[in-house]
């Protein structure tokens, strides 16, 4: 690699980010004390603030027992409301449209209970062929739940031959041609494998114009790219909080339902005692009276200790702001791309993420020409202290996260790749 290490240090001095707010795992190999952590697309790092905040919530339980529901400093009954406004800001929603609850696939199912309403010839669900497997399983099981054959019902859109990512027109073209048979479009905003950012507003508009409902899995988009779900007229969206939102493994997830669906008495929905309006929750009447907000989709009382880390993380996003993060993300990922260009030029490696920064978030995915991705990431970690993540058989993902990753992390990743993967002799 030609780019000298000193150049990375110089860039870090000029554009330092917020690494000091996070715990960075120690390196398990190589010559640096800290890992070059580029796996935030899989699991984000722990904010330093999280532990104390979590302990404060545990203290309240210790001191107050059941009275903590009302008397804790952050009373448990309305605790989830503390997360609503910052989550709404992050996804470009109104507070009434957003709630933090459950986990991602569970929420996708709850959304589909309401919004996947196959009728007549309009039964299809459109996903990407490279959808995250959980989404694929979820939509197939929804088809079956409605008595439909998943093989006929689920349409998997593939990139054109020889291309790695879907073009917007591949999706909008399908919707223009076949849209009258489509009940639901459910795509990943940023694809987990390729890192491609789809044109959410254009595809949403095309899907809705075709008469379909349009939902988004934003697991890899939230906290990664700016979102404006309300203005984009998205019907619903769901996301997890353990990737770019740094809220810990299996963290509570988020849901968006557009205002136009709120309070609709005709929407089917699974309900529990948390679906009824807060003021009526303890009346314990046989019939619920759901509020005209997305809280009507809540079912159970929420896990307080799981909400603390999400609250702490959302505060960080509020403090730094998505515009500043996106700007740094473009700089960092552009730098990693430049380094990977040097490394991949004469090696059996190919970046499959779109080159246009407007069509991606921070993740760059590298397809390897030979060997196993998992073996390669093992070597990167144990020989160089670089943590990337493998999607077998042949994709290694590198995500410089603008909150805590550095230019030097990117340099180490590229240098490690260069040292690990042999050059092709010309
Ligand atoms: C795009 C996408 N969808 C769904 C999931 C599944 O998430 P969960 O296990 O939280 O339901 C993941 C997990 O990584 C994901 O990346």
UniProtKB/TrEMBL annotation:
SUPFAM superfamilies (UniProt xref): PLP-dependent transferases
Keyword Transcription part of the UniProt annotation: no
Reactions catalysed: 3-hydroxy-L-kynurenine + H2O = 3-hydroxyanthranilate + L-alanine + H(+); L-kynurenine + H2O = anthranilate + L-alanine + H(+)
Residues holding pyridoxal 5'-phosphate: 104-105, 132-135, 217, 220, 242, 273, 301
EC annotation from Swiss-Prot or TrEMBL: 3.7.1.3
Keyword Hydrolase: yes
Gene Ontology annotations of biological process type: anthranilate metabolic process; L-kynurenine catabolic process; L-tryptophan catabolic process to kynurenine; NAD+ biosynthetic process; quinolinate biosynthetic process
Disordered: annotated span: 1-27
Xref: PANTHER family: KYNURENINASE
Gene Ontology molecular-function annotations: kynureninase activity; pyridoxal phosphate binding
Purpose of the protein: Catalyzes the cleavage of L-kynurenine (L-Kyn) and L-3-hydroxykynurenine (L-3OHKyn) into anthranilic acid (AA) and 3-hydroxyanthranilic acid (3-OHAA), respectively.
UniProt-listed InterPro entries: Kynureninase, PyrdxlP-dep_Trfase, PyrdxlP-dep_Trfase_major, PyrdxlP-dep_Trfase_small
Keyword list, A-Z: Hydrolase, Pyridine nucleotide biosynthesis, Pyridoxal phosphate
Basic and acidic residues bias (residue ranges): 1-18
Domain of life: Bacteria
Record-annotated membrane-spanning stretches: none
UniProt source species: Micromonospora cremea
Location of N6-(pyridoxal phosphate)lysine modifications: 243
Cofactor entry: pyridoxal 5'-phosphate
GO cellular component: cytoplasm
Involved pathway(s): Cofactor biosynthesis; NAD(+) biosynthesis; quinolinate from L-kynurenine: step 2/3; Amino-acid degradation; L-kynurenine degradation; L-alanine and anthranilate from L-kynurenine: step 1/1
Assembly with partners or alone: Homodimer.
Family membership: Belongs to the kynureninase family.
Protein name, entry field: Kynureninase
């Amino acid at each position: 690699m030609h780019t000298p290490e000193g150049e990375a240090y110089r860039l870090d001095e000029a554009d330092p980010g917020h690494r000091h707010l996070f715990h960075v795992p120690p390196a398990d190999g190589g010559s640096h004390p800290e890992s070059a952590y580029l796996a935030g697309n899989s699991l984000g790092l722990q904010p330093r603030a999280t532990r104390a905040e979590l302990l404060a919530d545990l203290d309240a339980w210790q001191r107050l027992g059941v009275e903590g529901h009302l008397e804790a400093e952050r009373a448990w009954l309305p605790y989830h409301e503390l997360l609503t406004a910052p989550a709404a800001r992050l996804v470009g929603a109104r507070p009434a449209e957003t709630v933090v609850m459950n986990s991602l696939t569970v929420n996708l199912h709850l959304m589909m209970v309401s919004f996947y309403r196959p009728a007549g010839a309009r039964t299809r669900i459109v996903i990407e062929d490279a959808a995250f497997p959980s989404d694929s399983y979820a939509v197939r099981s929804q088809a079956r739940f409605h008595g439909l054959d998943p093989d006929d019902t689920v349409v998997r859109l593939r990139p054109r031959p020889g291309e790695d990512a879907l073009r917007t027109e591949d999706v909008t073209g399908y919707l223009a041609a076949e849209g009258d048979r489509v009940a639901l479009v459910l795509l990943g905003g940023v694809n987990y494998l390729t890192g491609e950012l789809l044109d959410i507003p254009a595809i949403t508009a095309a899907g809705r114009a075709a008469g379909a409902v349009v939902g988004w899995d934003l697991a890899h988009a939230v906290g990664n790219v700016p979102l404006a779900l309300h203005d984009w007229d998205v019907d619903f969206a769901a996301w997890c909080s353990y990737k770019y939102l740094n809220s810990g493994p299996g963290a509570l997830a988020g849901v968006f339902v557009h205002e136009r669906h709120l309070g609709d008495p005709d929407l089917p929905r699974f309900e529990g005692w948390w679906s009824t309006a807060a003021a009526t929750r303890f009346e314990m009447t046989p019939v619920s009276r759901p509020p005209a907000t997305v809280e009507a989709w809540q079912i159970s009382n929420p896990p307080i200790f799981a909400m603390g880390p999400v609250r702490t993380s959302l505060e960080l996003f509020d403090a730094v702001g998505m515009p500043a993060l996106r700007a740094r993300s473009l700089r960092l990922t552009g730098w990693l791309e430049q380094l990977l260009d040097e490394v991949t030029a004469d090696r059996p490696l190919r970046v499959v993420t779109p080159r246009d920064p407007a069509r991606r978030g921070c993740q760059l995915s590298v397809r390897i020409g030979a060997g196993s991705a998992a073996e390669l990431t093992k070597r990167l970690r144990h020989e160089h202290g670089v943590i990337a993540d493998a999607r077998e058989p042949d994709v290694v993902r590198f995500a410089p996260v603008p909150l805590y990753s550095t230019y030097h992390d990117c340099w180490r990743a590229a240098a490690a790749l260069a040292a690990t993967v042999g050059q092709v002799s010309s």
